Amino acid sequence: MTITELGLPSLKPLTPGMPTDGPLVDTFGRAATDLRVSLTDRCNLRCTYCMPAEGLDWLPQEQLLRPEELTRLLRIAVTRLGITSVRFTGGEPLVAKHLEDVVAATATLRPRPEITLTTNGIGLDKRAAKLKRAGLDRINVSLDTVDAAHFAHITRRDRLADVLAGLRAAKDAGLSPVKVNAVLDPETGLNDAVELLQFCLEHGYQLRIIEQMPLDAGHQWQRGRAISADDVLATLQQHFTLTPDPAPRGSAPAELWQVDGRGTVGIIASVSHNFCAACDRTRLTADGQIRNCLFATEETDLRRLLRSGADDAALEQAWRTAMWAKAAGHGINDPDFVQPVRPMSAIGG
Predict the structure, then answer these.
(1) Class of domain 34-347
(2) pLDDT for 273 beyond 70
(3) Domain ranges of the chain
(4) Between the CA of residue 158 and those of 189, 191, 306, 332, what are the distances in Å?
(5) Please, how many CA atoms are within 13 Å of residue 233, restricted to the half-sphere of its CB?
(6) In the chain, where do the E strands start and end?
(7) How far apart, in Å, are the Cα atoms of 140 and each of 98, 156, 171, 348?
(8) pLDDT tens-digit profile of 90-111?
(9) Which residue, of 212, 251, 311, 327, is most buried by count of CB atoms within 10 Å of its CB?
(10) Is 330 within 8 Å of 295 (Cβ atoms)?
């Protein structure tokens, strides 16, 4: 068994003419229904594959979207552009003081979107119940290993116990299914994957293993060092009985496998077996930029439009134009690929 590919051959440009209403589409006919919203570029970890030990220069506060600006854009996305799922990310979204307020405002939108959160879990034990009451539906917690020494090496912080407490609190609060996102360390990752899956099966979490992507601040990513999805699958098959999940994959980034009848594991092969042909995402950065792809090299500045008095129709038009220009794929495997200037922490997961 191998990882399958939702590749690009089926993508063909459609006839020209950007729609002015209806779904948020691109020239290949893909409709963006999943909005990723970064609330901050700040983070309280220093993961080796994301940022340097000393951290980064954070965005100035005045450049970040104000809560009322963000909620306005969320309303436009849901009511005018057909967004059905909103995921809040960072940086680390739990360091954003307005997180619960933004979640609550999103929950009042009609039609109500699904509301999710990706977090590193630090401080989640104190806020999981509040987030559930505010309207959060479910949560993904980033956790690359359950080995304390490996965790401290990867994140440069000794905070594994805090993340585990956050996971328990999320489950207790009913933020289900609780998913665990793992990016494997090149040295210890295959062993970590086995231990992570066993841990998740024992606690009722759903593990998602994600190939490391060229989104680090130092642009040090090397294809030859990163663990591939095929290597992960082969390793897990040595320890567990995996069978392909029969449910249609649709636009989900993870290929799912059933594990010993005890649960599932998802493998996200972003680099080696891309799924760009089924992409349904649009992205809003903490400083109000629309990105039509995680690896886009250009952005559309909605913050400037907001602060210059643009009406909802103008903001909608700008958003549609940005998505209409979306490329067929991320191009990581192309010889002329250029890594985005912004690191993952400034783009949003």
Answers:
(1) alpha beta
(2) yes
(3) 34-347
(4) 18, 20, 41, 33
(5) 22
(6) 34-38, 85-89, 114-119, 138-142, 178-183, 206-210, 242-244, 255-259, 263-268, 281-284, 289-291, 300-301
(7) 19, 21, 11, 14
(8) 999 999 999 999 999 999 999 9
(9) 212
(10) yes
